[in-house]
Design a protein that fits this description.
The protein has 511 residues and is α/β, with parallel strands linked by helices. Helices cover 38% and strands 23% of the residues. It has a seven-stranded mixed beta sheet, sandwiched between helices. A five-stranded parallel beta sheet has the order 11-10-9-12-13, with helices on both faces. Strands 1-5-6-2 form a four-stranded mixed beta sheet, covered by helices on one side. Helix 13 links the parallel strand 22 and strand 23. It is globular. The N terminus is likely disordered.
């Protein structure tokens, strides 16, 4: 929960408040603005996590200049050597996993089991990308001419700008930073203003692993003051954003003006199909985890559950009964199952959509209210909320809410379910629960999304496969796996003619 210190004084029970500086050219430096903002625990606003720099364009320029100087040397470091540093960072993250997870829960709110998983995903990404440092494969092909060798090699793009979200503050930063540096790029990253500490912790591990100064630079602050200058800077040759589709359109437009590489990972309204033959116990547990894990604050959250009419009544009854029993609270309590919204604005959005659903004629079977009594009064808590009698074109079934609000829709059969699932502007994740292998494969073919799960919820991606979606979910690039390598490199075709004479391709064919 980021707040401007100019309008709210720091209040904390700690005797000393930690002040975090920008990381530019290997040094921790204050913003040229002289201004700061607070990072508070969304579960308990009395808990001040730290004070961060409220940076501006001048800070961005300094970071880009540092990255530019570092790139001249870093691109020449052999890729296996670059990868060894990333591997060492994974080992460091393992040692610090519990500390970093607890700090992430304090600044982001999700439960400890999930923040441990967030750090683990960064570890997994580091191990995977370290392996890619000894691969970075390119094709060698036969030339159409004699005594001529042909191949293609990967080369780094240059300076990469990154804008990361608050819901996976270390994992998604790792998706961007680690492949970029292994490929020989240098980086300027703006972490989300609600969760800057987790990105700082990742960069601290990379620095301790031996990454040279200027290879990664961190500038904290707000979108218009930091994110926009990064996207607009002429020396930044690639921009990677994870955020809303609205912001994605803006960043994509900026990048297009100077022909930057641009990777946009944006919104989702993800469907989970439950057919009559599904294992209902499994589907209910999956739907609860997918719908209310991370308080529904995932771009892959299971926000729509499409249930075949034969099991609809039983599924709804059992699902709602379980949702009512979910324990909501401070994520530092190991018994808590769902934490708070990230900030007051997000909570207001969640509650607004509850009213929209009611006004549209959907039936709310549980939740819908803010929790603000007792210890809840210091945080941004809401009850897990379930709507039924939802029609496919209702706003709560079409628009990304990004909160603990699940819509349950009825369908006649698989074909009807797929039509409902695809009938949105997004195409990120999807899933189906069925015991019929034929229907499972038909769904894999027909669901128009970047990810499809069989007998699992819409969350749970792994770092070694491409991550991203179709339609308004992005612009076609992928994070994770080989997709990340593709984005952070450019192809160079190389021809070596050892004939010692001029050969004219497509002309000198010896016919």
């Amino acid at each position: 929960m980021a707040t401007d210190t100019l309008s709210r004084p720091a209040q904390t029970s700690d005797t000393q408040t930690k002040v975090f500086k920008n990381f530019i050219d290997g040094e921790w430096v204050e913003s040229s603005s002289g201004e700061t903002f607070e990072n508070r625990n969304p579960a308990d606003s009395r808990d001040l996590v730290g004070i961060f720099q409220k940076s501006n364009k001048e800070d961005v320029n300094a970071a880009v200049d540092a990255a530019k100087r570092a790139f001249a040397k870093w691109r020449l470091v052999p890729a296996p050597r670059r990868a060894e540093m990333v591997f060492r960072a994974a080992e460091i993250l393992i040692e610090r996993k519990e500390d970093y997870a607890r700090e992430m829960t304090r600044e982001m709110g999700k439960v400890l089991a999930e923040t441990r998983g967030d750090v683990q995903e960064a570890i997994d990404c580091a191990y995977y990308m370290a392996g890619e440092g000894r691969r970075l494969f390119g094709p060698t092909v036969p030339s159409e001419l004699p005594n001529k060798f042909a191949m293609a090699v990967r080369q780094p793009v240059g300076i990469c700008g990154m804008i990361t979200p608050w819901n996976f503050p270390m994992a998604i930063s790792s998706w961007k930073l680690l492949p970029a540096v292994v490929c020989g790029n240098t980086c300027v990253i703006k972490p989300a203003q609600d969760t800057p500490l987790s990105t700082f912790n990742l960069v601290r591990a990379l620095t301790d692993a031996g990454l040279p100064k200027g290879v990664i630079n961190v500038v904290s602050g707000f979108g218009s003051s930091v994110g926009t200058p990064i996207a607009e800077h002429a020396d930044v040759r690639a921009i990677s954003l994870t955020g809303s589709s609205e912001v994605g359109r803006i960043v994509g437009g900026i990048a297009a003006k100077s022909f930057k590489h641009c990777s946009l990972e944006l919104g989702g309204k993800n469907p989970m199909i439950v057919l009559d033959d599904a294992n209902l116990d499994l589907a209910i547990e999956g739907g609860l985890w997918g719908g209310f894990g991370t308080t529904g604050q995932r771009c892959t959250a299971t926000s729509r559950i499409i249930v075949q009419k034969g099991v609809h009544r039983e599924f709804v009854g059992r699902y709602v009964e379980r949702a009512k029993k979910l324990k909501v609270g401070n994520g530092l309590d190991e018994t808590v199952e769902m934490g708070p919204a990230i900030n007051e604005k997000q909570l207001e959005t969640d509650l607004k959509y509850v009213e929209i659903g009611k006004n549209e004629g959907a039936r709310m079977l549980c939740g819908g209210d803010r929790l603000d009594q007792g210890d809840y009064k210091y945080g941004w808590f809401m009850q897990p909320t379930v709507f039924t009698d939802v029609e496919p074109k209702m706003r709560i079934a079409q628009e990304e809410i990004f909160g603990p609000v699940v819509s349950i829709l009825a369908c006649d059969d698989l074909e009807d379910a797929v039509e409902i699932a695809n009938g949105i502007e997004y195409g990120l994740s999807s899933s189906i629960y069925t015991k019929d292998v034929n229907k499972a494969f038909a769904a894999m073919r027909d669901l128009y999304a970047g990810i499809t799960y069989i007998n699992a919820p819409t969350i749970g991606a792994e770092v070694h496969l491409p991550f991203g979606g179709t339609k308004a979910t992005g612009n076609g690039h992928r994070e994770g796996g080989i997709g990340a390598i593709e984005f952070y490199t450019e192809w160079k075709s190389v021809y070596v003619d050892y004939s010692d004479k001029l050969q004219k391709a497509q002309i000198d064919r010896g016919e």
